[in-house]
Amino acid sequence: MSGARFVDVPASPHGRAARIAVHATGAGPLAVLLHGYPLDHRMWEAVRRGELAQRRTLAALDLRGHGSSPFAGDDAHAMERFADDVAAVVATLAPDGRADVVGLSMGGYAALAFAERHPQRLRSLALVDTRAAADAPAARAARDAAIAVATAQGAAAIADAMLPKLLAPGADPTVAAALRAMIAGTPVATIVADLRGLRDRADRTALLPTLQAPTLVVVGEHDAITPPAEAAAMAAAIPGARLVVAPGAGHMTPMEQPTAFAAALAAFWDTAG
Ligand code: MLT
Questions:
Q1: DSSP letter at 68?
Q2: Taking the model in full, what pTM does it have?
Q3: How far does residue 198's CA lie from ligand 1's centre (Å)?
Q4: How much of the chain is helix, strand and coil, in % rounded to 5?
Q5: Taking the CA of residue 49 as centre, how many other CA atoms within 13 Å lie in the half-sphere pointing to its CB?
């Protein structure tokens, strides 16, 4: 399977009807790759070119309003709505109706919502540079401040504010440039809806001990946004979960250390079935 296609999803109490763009490469059982905030499918480019495509059909989604998926007009992008969009994609594309779900940061929050709402569609779960907890009061206030910045100054100002926190010290400048272009190219309406969804998302810590699917937790050793200690605690709370700490990576492990990331995911998939 190659190229991009669109999956239509109906309106629900969590959000409007939307078209979800799916960029698929590779062959075999379906794996969906869920990007972080405020990015799109291109953050998976390096890992989609490597060994993983020999094991799975790698479907990198553009979550609603991101990349080639149009903004649907939602006030907020609820994690539940993202999860239901992913379920519609899996139902449409997976021959057996299930997928390996890989989510980075906001994509990980959506992946946990997917695991809660659609467990029958989940073959395995990879939680990458992410957390289960909700925003604390200070983080919620920071979301409101970011909404004000995005609205007054645009997406480039969000890129300037975020970039220093996303990458490990000494990161490849081409990775930084690609990240900056992705963030600066994201519509402000999408950024604002994302920030409201992130601010108001549910705490899914209590879900962790109930997870049935094989789970991998990956975190960059220098991740300043979702730090290794928090990833370790999350992995410890999930029955049988494995933890991989990626040397030399910050918050964007699949972009910063794509070879090590792909090797960890390949080893996980090979043993998770
Ligand atoms: C992300 O990378 O998706 C964001 O940093 C998530 C967040 O801000 O909570």
A1: T
A2: 0.98
A3: 8
A4: 50, 20, 35
A5: 8
Give yes or no for residue 158 CB within 6 A of ligand 1: no
Catalytic residues: 105, 223, 251
The number of the ligand 1 atom at minimal distance from the alpha carbon of 198 is 9
Strands 18-26 and 4-9 turn out to be: antiparallel
- The SS3 call for residue 206 is helix
Kindly state the helix (H) or strand (E) to which residue 51 belongs, with its residue range. Answer: none
> Using a 6 Å cutoff on CB, does residue 198 contact ligand 1?
yes
pLDDT tens digits, one per residue of 142-164: 999 999 999 999 999 999 999 99
Structure tokens at 59: 């479907």
What is the three-class DSSP state of 29?
Answer: coil
Q: Which helix (H) or strand (E) holds 219?
A: strand 215-220
DSSP 3-state of 7: strand
**What is the token pair recorded at 57?**
């059909």
CA distance 129 to 70: 26
Biggest CA–CA distance in the chain, Å, is 49
Predicted confidence (pLDDT) per residue in 162-205, tens digit: 999 999 999 999 999 999 999 999 999 999 999 999 999 999 99
Burial class (CB in 10 A: 0-12, 13-18, 19+), 50: middle
Q: Measuring CA to CA, which residue among 269, 80, 86 is closest to residue 261?
A: 269
CB 188 within 8 A of CB 236: no
Dist CA 49 CA 58 (whole Å): 10
Q: Is the CB of 106 under 6 A from ligand 1?
A: yes
Taking a C-beta distance cutoff of 8 angstroms, is the pair 198, 109 a contact?
yes
**94 CB-near residues (< 8 Å, 6+ apart):** 29, 30, 121
